[in-house]
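Journal club side-thread
Mid-discussion, someone asked how the predicted structure for our own chain would compare to the paper's figures. Pasting it here so we can look after the session.
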Amino acid sequence: MGGLERVYELGKDFRNEGLSTKHNPEFTMVEWYEAYADYGDAMDRVEQLVIGIASAIDYEGPIDFSAPWPRIPLAQAIKDATDIDILEHTERDSLVAAISASEKVKLDVEDRAWPTLVDDLLSKYVEPAVTNPVFITDYPTALSPFAKQHRSEEGLVERFEAFCNGMEFANAFSELNDPDEQRRRFEDQVRLAEAGEEESQPYDEVFVQALEQGMPPTAGVGLGIDRLVMLMTGRDSIREVVLFPAMRD
């Protein structure tokens, strides 16, 4: 990273997404990258940062931020909530059949690719039930094209998202630093896009060429400041914590 082993940026992000109590097109995020670290180190840092903030402001709300936060693999979290094992249904048709047969799950499966269906199970059946902070870890490769392969679990990557009070507020992973594997991942993303996956990543050859110059093992984190403020202040809507939540023509 330009000779710097630890870098961070705190600034504004803009995404062309819909409005909700958890989403605003303009939001504030802190991102950091740490060389010679992995997603386990990143979990430790997120946990320490949030607990430190809660302590500094004398937080007295209903959320228990105390360590250690649970670390639950994504497949286990979804299975606990829905009885569906996504690792047993790694093809779209198989997962659609499992969802259709489930008495617990009601999802629109038409024109939904496998990664989108997995994300739907997470966002609609796992995320809303979370109160105290938890790390959901070890995502399927198809959901995380920039994350490094898991060191011991085939088909998974070293990624986590931090959830609290029914929403995700941080996303991180051990960065994929193998240019050949990254090229293959981009090719997979192109195929997903052709199959109708709206969240697929475009092929970025310049990024692959940059990786070919060499990159050390690295952990990267993105943490939403607005959502963190919501947690610390007990607010239910992001509109209550941003300066200009809406603009008129």
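Post-session note: The chain has seven helices and seven strands.
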